[in-house]
Amino acid sequence: MSGAHENAAERERAITEEVLAAFSATPDPRLRAIMRSLIGHLHAFAREVRLTDREWQTAIAFLTRAGHLTDERRQEFILLSDVLGLSMLTVALNAPDTPGATEATVLGPFFVDDAPEIPLGGDLAQGAPGTPCHVSGRIRSTDGSPVGGALLDVWGADEDGLYDVQYPGEHCAGRGRLRADPDGGFRFWTVLPTPYPIPHDGPAGDLLTACGRGPMRPAHLHFKVTAPGHRTLITHLFVAGDPHLDRDAVFGVRDSLVVEAEHHEGGTAPDGSQPRGAWASMTHDLVLAPDHGSAPGR
Ligand code: BEZ
Ligand code: FE
To answer: Domain 79-288 - what CATH class?
Structure first.
């Protein structure tokens, strides 16, 4: 290295050291470790790409736009985390190390707490347009025992690829809360999931376009399952054969979560009803990991 370059590198390094020193007395040890690592990686990144003033301004404008778009109905920062794979990496970092448990995936921005209770076997579509789909399975523990009474939150998009919360008004459709029977069994009707784009009319969508990526997610149904003594499971069931399974915009697909949807025309459904026209059915068991005293809410 020539003397001038050596001096420039030393000056850059001195800035990083000064910033690290300023944060070194952070009282909380976890926050201290996080800030040390964050500053180290952030500064190394800026040095590595030789960040220009104009790029720094573009990044600030990008984040400002994300902030202005974010409200209680739209969370652009979570979308950014999703398309950068940070959400899925965080899921993996926090997954229980329990063989046999159903794999977890991203929560996504469309979960609503306190969804209406639906009786077992009921229809949580509540008027959402789409092909009726009967979904059933069993909630089990990794030791094979049934988890009777487990609470299931289920939500999915309609055939136009939209969740109820993306429509104006408060109508709740395509979501509901059910309790598994004493044998852990669950069953309900909803609409057959179809692939849909994540909201891509903001910075996250612009980033995808600029990087030659698409906004599509493969067809899926969301589940959140809670039961005493078990880790809460947040996952999806994906529909086998979807053309987007290998390029999910948010990296959420796990092979073990891909399930065949059987297609039917008329006939008799698993609940004995006789649907008119086309309908579908999916069945899959969900296996919960035991909770060995993990942090609350996990
Ligand atoms: C979803 O599956 O609902 C979703 C996940 C991440 C980003 C956008 C939507
Ligand atoms: Fe979704």
So the answer is: mainly beta
